[in-house]
Amino acid sequence: MTDPMAIAQAVRSACVAAALEGYEQAQIAGLCQEGAWEVAVDAIRMVDLTEILQTTDPEGSSLTPPRGPSSA
Fold first, then answer.
1. Which domain does 47 fall in, by range?
2. How wide is the angle at C-alpha 72 spanned by C-alphas 19 and 65, nearest 5°?
3. Could you tell me the pTM of the whole model?
4. Averaged pLDDT, 18-33
């Protein structure tokens, strides 16, 4: 069985990475802080949970941290 703590840590890492990336890209695009925050929150909502579950091995240790949502 997969360790729930490893999954939780992987989810947290993915959310932080997605938020930072989203916020940075929004700032580069010229959005105000409020707009950039909204983009960051949306990035967290788009984190691919299926990918996180697939990158957590059966022993519970997190493999390569998943990336945030892909830019489209």
1. 4-54
2. 45
3. 0.71
4. 97
